[in-house]
Amino acid sequence: MSSEALASAISPDNPVYRARKLQNRVLLVISCLALAFGLFWLAWILGTLLYEGGTALLRASLYYQMTPPPGADGGLANAIAGSAMLVGVGTLLGTPIGILAGTYLAEYGEKSWLAFATRFLNDVLLSAPSIVMGLFVYSVYVAQVKHFSGWAGAFALSLIVIPVVVRTTDDMLKLVPNSLREAAVALGCPMWKMIMLVTYRAARTGILTGILLAVARISGETAPLLFTALNNQFWSTNLNAPMASLPTVIFQFALSPYKDWQMLAWTGALIITFTVLALSIVARTLTASRKQS
Asked: Quick check: pTM over 0.85?
């Protein structure tokens, strides 16, 4: 295109140029309004959580006292410790399975029928309600041993972790250039060593991001724990017994008519929100650093 034709195309007198510029402005305004709409509700939610539960967040007793009976002073120590244990064990159980399954899909399965079926079932699990996981673990584990336990809660959470890690690992390993694999194999590197030393190293940031996102998802899950770990008003680190957790305590205290319980429920929701926010920021930071590198 000549310079004269280009100048004519972007001339303010050109009706096509004016129409496209108007369309761009309209879409820009709509995009900004959509952004403001989402940020408004986010700010409202965070503001409400800080207003209702921010005061108790600064109390030292919140972190060393147990959940109290109605009318008594207390904290969320047992619920915080229980949530940390359940989320930690659930992540440790689900992450290796997810990474190995994602590795098979990306490195070995390729376009086989088994890989296709696995991806399809994994997508179904990604969209399945978490209460289904809780009911499944209840029927195959809790009903058999005839008591609720932290192990059952961790198993239910691990079933939520697995599909997230499988999908992330599969996608991240696919982004590794085949030239790196070919170079390692050409040097006589076995398949398993090529995966460990080449593809995992190239995709480690993305895989770690997926693990953090899975942890953020299970941190606030309530439904699976109601059918598995149930709750415990006292301090307990025994995974073979009912165990307290922040989501179940929030569920119980928020429905109660007692003001002190309701305040603790707001504070517990604030703790979970800040934890998920921190994990999301870390995941975004890792993703940004991977793109820059």
From this structure: yes
User: Please, which residues have CB within 8 angstroms of residue 174's CB and are 6 or more apart in sequence?
Assistant: 106
- Token pair belonging to 17: 């140029």
Query: In the numeric block, which tokens belong to residue 29?
Result: 């305004």
Two tokens, residue 98: 């997810």
Q: What is the pLDDT of residues 243-268, one digit of tens each?
A: 999 999 999 999 999 999 999 999 99
Q: What are the CA-CA distances from residue 65 to residues 73, 133, 140, 246 (Å)?
A: 9, 31, 34, 14
**Which amino acid type is present at position 252?**
Q
| pLDDT tens digits, 208-251 | 989 999 999 999 999 999 999 999 999 999 999 999 999 999 99
Q: Which helix (H) or strand (E) holds 148?
A: none
Give the dihedral sign, CA 195/197/199/205. positive
In angstroms, the CA 140 to CA 144 distance is 6
Half-sphere exposure of 220 (CA within 13 A, CB side): 15
